[in-house]
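Quick board copy: two proteins, each given as sequence then tokens.
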Amino acid sequence: MAFATIDVTKGITGSVPTANLPTIPVTKGGTNLTSGTTDQFLKFTGTTTLASAADNAGAWERLNGTSGTGLSDITYDNFSSTYQVYKIIGSHTMSVDDAQTRMRVRKSGTDQTSSHYRFAFGEPYRTSGGGGISYNTNWNADHVRITQGSSNAVAHPTGFEFTIYSPFDSTRQSACYLQSFFFETGGADTWKAWTGSVWLDSTTGVDITGIKFYPDSGTFTNAKYSIYGLKDS
């Protein structure tokens, strides 16, 4: 005689063969997946789940972040060959006016202070009376200026994006790209922006393991920094 129902709490032992197991849907706490591929990850959208290695390839990954006030510098010392490109996004005000934001690269936890930094920035600006463009360059400096000294740096924020390419590579020099903005008061209130490139010569520009941002006087206030790494795949 056939049973209409089976009491699964009594008289059943052993394991159900894998081939007989169902795919558990997301609505029941499962993933709705029966298998995956190396390096895939799960992305939940509320009712469905995506497993895709493509979503994990070539994406920016946030590696670290710093925020606070009264900071004498912001330093990252974890560059590696895992990431071929690093991007630092930062904003802050200053504890004193007329302070510059500066950058140096680091090797094995040590600032590189030799005169091997070279940069060329275009400087578009706008005042109440008009605007224009000028240039800011240096050859063989011992640092890179991210901004010039702003006479109103306490009250107005500075922001920038700094990208450094192949810093951990021992076979080629690193190149960098900067975009920054800052506000200055003088004869007229002026918004300025810098955009351009940074070169590091063969002494400084290989085997870079970290980077440091610092004011030439005072400290950073209201600082918010994030660093991202870009994998090849």
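And the next:
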Amino acid sequence: MSLFADYQPKDQVTAPLDVANGLTIREAETRDFSRLALIAAEREETTPDVQLKLFEKQLLHQETGQSMILVAEVLGEIGGFGKCAYCKPPAGAPANAAPEGWYLTGVIVAPKFRRRRIGHQLTQARLQWLARRTSKAYYFASAQNRVTIELHRQLGFVEVTRDFSFPNVTFTGGVGILFEMDLRLLRTEDRP
């Protein structure tokens, strides 16, 4: 599987999924982790066991209110997930460390559910969740990941810098972009 979805400037959405045709977005539960690990392992080219351990670790942070995993479920089948977490630069971080705050930390949609607006809806749901906790959200991406850059641009994210560091993160192609969004700009009807 390709690391990034193919960029198509005119989004070719086929049969978008929403509540009317069976899409539910909810908080992840432990029972979801084996399926989430399969989706993540395929995307990250690792094993489900490796990914399962990462989800279990994130659950501990979720229980302390420092992270969240949302699941997109389509008529009982998990179609993807999105994560967010509170991040703080470690002691001794370089001057260009990414700022402390809430970050969207990834969205993965299973191949059979791509181009159906699940990634968009998972991102909106995470932003709504974050808007109840903070006034600003961040995310970063490889400069080569045009699909995610365009998705987040449409939702109101703006580029902050390409000169930043984040612990244990490297970028495909070597260039990453840090983005931010003022969550107070969410339309009233988009807020929870």
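Board note added afterward: The mean pLDDT is 87.
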